[in-house]
Amino acid sequence: MKRYSVFAIAKQAMNYHLGWEKAWASPAPKKEYDVVIVGAGGHGLATAYYLGKNHGIKNVAIIEKGWLGGGNTGRNTTIIRSNYLQDPSAAIYDKALQLYEGLSQDLNYNVMFSPRGLLMLAQTHHEVRGYLRTVHANMLQGVTTEYISPARVKELVPIINIDGPRYPVLGALYQPRGGTGRHDAVAWGYARACSAMGMDIIQQTEVTAVRQEGGVVKGVETTKGFIGCKKLGVVVAGHSGQLAEMAGFRLPIEAVALQALVSEPIKPCMDVVVMANTVHGYMSQSDKGEMVIGGGTDGFNNFTQRGSFHHVEETLRALIETFPMISRLKMLRQWGGIVDMTGDRSPILSKTPLGNCFFNCGWGTGGFKAIPGSGWAMAELMAKGEPGPLTEEFSMWRFKEGKFIDESVAAGVAH
Amino acid sequence: MSTRLQKGGRLIDRTRSASFTFNGKRLSGFAGDTLASSLLANDQMLVGRSFKYHRPRGIVASGAEEPNALVNMGEGGRFEPNQRVTTTELFDGLTATSQNHWPSLEFDVGVVNNYAARFLPAGFYYKTFMFPRFAWKHVFEPIVRQSAGLGKVPQGPEVDRYEYAYAFCDLFIVGGGIAGLQAALVAGQAGSRVILVEQTAHWGGRAPVDGDVIDGKPADQWVKDTVQALEKLPNVTLRLRTMASGVYDHGYVLADEKVADHTPGDGRPRHRLWRIRAGKIISAQGAIERPLSFAGNDIPGVMLASAVRDYVVNFAVSPGDRTVVVTNNDDAYRTAIALKEAGLEVPAIIDARTSLTGDLPAKAKAMGIRVEAGRAVVKVKGGKRVTGVSIGLQAGEGAVLEDIACDAVAMSGGWSPVVHLWSHCAGKLVWDEAQAHFRPDPKRPPTNQDGAAMVAIVGAANGNLSAAAALADVAAQLGGSAVTAVEVPEAAMLAVWIMPQGAGPALKMKMWLDYQNDVKVSDVQLAAREGYTSVEHTKRYTTLGMATDQGKLSNINGLAVLAGALNDQIPNVGTTTFRPPYTPVPFGALAGESRGEIFQPLRKSPMHGWHEAHNAYLEPVGLWRRAYCYPRAGENHEQAVNREILNARANVGMLDASTLGKIIVKGPDAGRFLDMLYTNVMSNLGIGKCRYGLMCNEQGFLSDDGVVIRLSEDSWLCHTTTGGADRIHGWMEDWLQCEWWDWKVYTANVTEEYAQIAVAGPNARKVLEKLGGMDVSKETLPFMTFADGTLGGLPVRVHRISFSGELSYEIATPASHGLALWEALIEAGQEFGVMPYGTEAMHIMRAEKGFIMIGDETDGTVIPQDLNLGWAISKKKADYLGKRGQERTHLASPDRWKLAGFETLTGGVIPDGSYIIADGHNANGQRNTQGRVTSTYYSPTLKKGIAMGLIKGGMDRLGDVVEFNTVAGSTVKAKVVDPVFYDKDGEKGNA
């Protein structure tokens, strides 16, 4: 892999950029790999990357039905934070945040991690108490957050209306280390690094069955034939239920569409990410200048990845109320992403009833921010065959035990 | 230069002029102009700067597809960035300024990016700006952000309003060109309920500009006649200035009507958002002309051939004195002919095709226009304005044969049908090789709830580009009497994606695909070279098609270049996804009327006005506003709360409890139903009795609580928490409709039908007795019973229940009597020291009494057993919701955190949200914990801090001293105590 740098760009510029090599190879699949990962989204690619980097397992294929990074990795609102309430969540999300902080350098690919700070507004007394609880929990978890006053909120976000007639801002939970990243670049950066380690990224290839012998996985049938493996990692978000069925078990996962939209670009006007859970909306400004807005999930299960209107309407009402100046901005594009939701809205990183088959799913509305930590933890789980400290609470059997990791406690809506 | 012609202009009214400003310069146009046509009439071709390289940008198009000409418009509360001048109707007093430059449009420092363009190809930012690590946030990102963005930031709220309109119809027809009009006429005459919308201010589309003859009449006349015929049909609704923005599942359509954009401040809503449920949608949106990719095709003065024709014919505006036409098809000859007919010079028509056989080239030649076949524009000369073109062989590599001086270039690369609405709900496309465009695949339409085709597409939008073909298509799909247009035979076009064909990298770096985002042919080829070969990867890597026009001009050209770079066929490369809206819609329009006070419905108790009049501080609780406290002069909230508590404990207080949920459950199976819903038994509750109950979700976690009363043999009234009323009612209906549909039970949420007032304190009974009307003595109305009667002549139901720990009556009365009863009680209570108290006093009093509060002691992870409420869980019942969940190992574990009380060693208050620390750290390096505070207050009654919380071991830990953390990093020591701090034996409530 040729390193990217300003010098490399200058050198290529002299030759009309004709000398750049492919960011990743597109090989035909081999007959067998040590590890096959299904799903070349951020989580799958990160899993592969850390299998190679941390555990020396490089005979790896990542199989992707469509194009890499084309699922939720490429259709989220790019928010990165780790101010979670429950210990297991805070641990894995903060691991992810720590990795994001050095990811551009690690991958030699600028993922534009921008720790611009993140605010979660408290607009009811109940919410105030909830965020005070999170601040206390975060302190003990080693995650730096603070509860700030409305005046400080206004200082950080001059365009906000803190005296709205319905839900005045009473304070906010502030994580200065939170922010945003360039979502596609995360997938592309990991893909390039995986390819450089000799891993095979096999796009446009769909898994049609999971082959097993004596309760142990042997490989996957795909639209490009059978691909054998010693260990199988399934990282397919909304389609986890289908893959689990192929592997012979059921998962407590449902798929729903999460709505998002962007405005036309304007000059910089908001430096931090703002989430307003009482009124149901969150907003940040991309480096291009678009206001990136997230809303709620549709109230029914589906796989359409389409925008629907009722959430957009509610979200925009809420955000105009919070940021009156956006009223004359225009919606440029709206879309839906299929999110995989578990019963407690926390992920599953787990061994499964099928030997040597591991699942990583259920990130719901919060997956992008977790990508590096999720990959790191999943790689550890797959390499060792047993859960480590980051994954042990995220077993799929926790639902049977009732050992929930319920984050909806802290954030009533999307996280 | 571009200028206004002496005569002509079918859309302008020369008798009415309109003055406007652009960058402070005073200019004038005519009624009927667009801002674009009036700018051109004033020789203002340069209108903005591009996104990345800050290159000069001129007007390219004449409609919604315009990528370049975006301006800041209006001022103050009517300021709006990124307004397309091509779709903005001119009005007197309009103010506009150009965007994305500093210090001025003519001299922009940001153009330095242009000079460095060689070093800034697609995706350069992914390859650099990585060191040092913190430089991205502090140095590079701010620079990128400042140079990106387009329009200025609006300041403050806006002054206009918006509204929604709701409609339904059999057919929703989009596009008021000849195909849409004819489709509406056929369907309307057949009796269908039709809505026809057109995004511009005029009916007719392109046909009148192209000089088509329909039914033997000039197109203008046919359009006029047809609109008149449609206006006479009562079942047809016509809407101009209305853009169909998106098609959603089940025939749901949004359309944005610009009601008063062209008449600001006239009192009407600015936009009206139509929310339409349509039986079927017919898209007749026409087609959009494609640019050609030659070097310098972005220099101001290079325009779409159709746009040049529009400006000449519609507005009598000539984009240039000398216009070179460059094309790969016959249609662009119409532009040359129109220019010539308007008396303008056309130095040459450069046609990439080697043989020209159509009628139009023949006509152009006959008019004396020089036509060059097999030729290409090698490059356009000029900086802020075209000065000439160099031409060469299309089959060559860019050798220049000749330079031609000109000040405008009209280009045509063929036409692409507008397939957006077809595609929003997953209608598929086919590649039409002959016309080199994607058109709808009739075999794979978007489908509705019945699996039937939901969208049909007619006319040019269906690939039928000529007037004759478009009308034939309408007849084929919708029937109706035959309408024919005169067919002008056109020869086949030639797909030309790069001009000249063999251009080298230096030229390709100057061929723009996406004008706004500065994506060039070389960028798409770079993406392909680097492996970003999926069309979505190419789009995201280069930003092709991500500008405000969403690729209306650039997508197909970009796809073709990508296919070329991959040596693949265009249909194999595929398209990116079309998403709503078709063109950008203001957030304000999407949000509708919801603003400020009416942002959400406001629920008010019948006594709301009284609270406001008595200086209540109101807090939002769901959609309600509840009185938090009633501060008196000189009091802060805390002092007011303490006074209210002490008075209720010593004398008597009154709480407006009207917001509490009240749900009637009635029917032969109501008792059985409630036994499933609540953890305890409700079916054996005696008539006239009250019982406290708990509800859990299926997982076993406590979700709501409240007092249930039995009204009669088959009806109960369930009180819920304020926030839980609607949720619990939905929960009940969920079970009744989905699971126990055969149970004979009705529920009714009567929360708002009744006002409810808690009268609490040692003097409570005296106040009621003073009002008189019913016996409220301990003997007749003991604790946990209720009775119907009258008080002070008002109908009431009096419950002996208490959430404060005091002798307490909760009195319900029909909502209309609420205020009267409240005022009567206040008056009757004067001699007994009555004061109203708010929600905070209620919270503290219940905490003093050790009562749990849903949302404080519970958070969705707490089971009743954790809260020492095992007594409210029936051991006799076979089942209740949550029972199975509670049997799971983790919920039955002795290690769970359980409820206890806490008192600090100093009498201080434990911080809200604090955790009880334990020794050591876990494997992830997090400090171990053993519990947390759930309610913590200063108790004015006990004059010290009191708290409830959950701790491992619960009440077994009585007497232990534990440490709570604080945000300062220190800890607060507290003793584990009984959570009932006040009246442990319950004598007061029973009194």
TrEMBL record, chain A:
Family matches, as Gene3D superfamilies: D-Amino Acid Oxidase, subunit A, domain 2, FAD/NAD(P)-binding domain
Catalysed reactions listed for this entry: sarcosine + (6S)-5,6,7,8-tetrahydrofolate + O2 = (6R)-5,10-methylene-5,6,7,8-tetrahydrofolate + glycine + H2O2; sarcosine + O2 + H2O = formaldehyde + glycine + H2O2
Name recorded for this polypeptide: Sarcosine oxidase subunit beta
Residue span(s) of domain Rhodanese: 35-79
Uppermost EC category: oxidoreductase
A biological process from GO: tetrahydrofolate metabolic process
Cofactor dependency: FMN; FAD
Enzyme Commission number, as recorded: 1.5.3.24
Pfam families in UniProt: DAO
Subcellular location: Cytoplasm
GO cellular component: cytoplasm
Family: Belongs to the SoxB family.
Automatic annotation (TrEMBL), chain B:
GO molecular-function terms, A-Z: sarcosine oxidase activity
Start and end residues of each SoxA A3 domain: 509-592
Keyword Oxidoreductase attributed: yes
Limits of the GCVT N-terminal domain: 607-877
Residue span(s) of domain Aminomethyltransferase C-terminal: 898-983
Assigned keywords, A-Z: Oxidoreductase
GO biological process: tetrahydrofolate metabolic process
Domain FAD/NAD(P)-binding: 170-421
InterPro entries: 2Fe-2S-bd_N, FAD/NAD-bd_sf, FAD/NAD-binding_dom, GcvT/YgfZ/DmdA, GcvT/YgfZ_C, GcvT_C, GCVT_N, Sarcosine_oxidase_asu
One Pfam family here: SO_alpha_A3
PANTHER family noted in UniProt: AMINOMETHYLTRANSFERASE, AMINOMETHYLTRANSFERASE, MITOCHONDRIAL
Family: Belongs to the GcvT family.
Protein name: Sarcosine oxidase subunit alpha family protein
Protein's organism: Tabrizicola oligotrophica
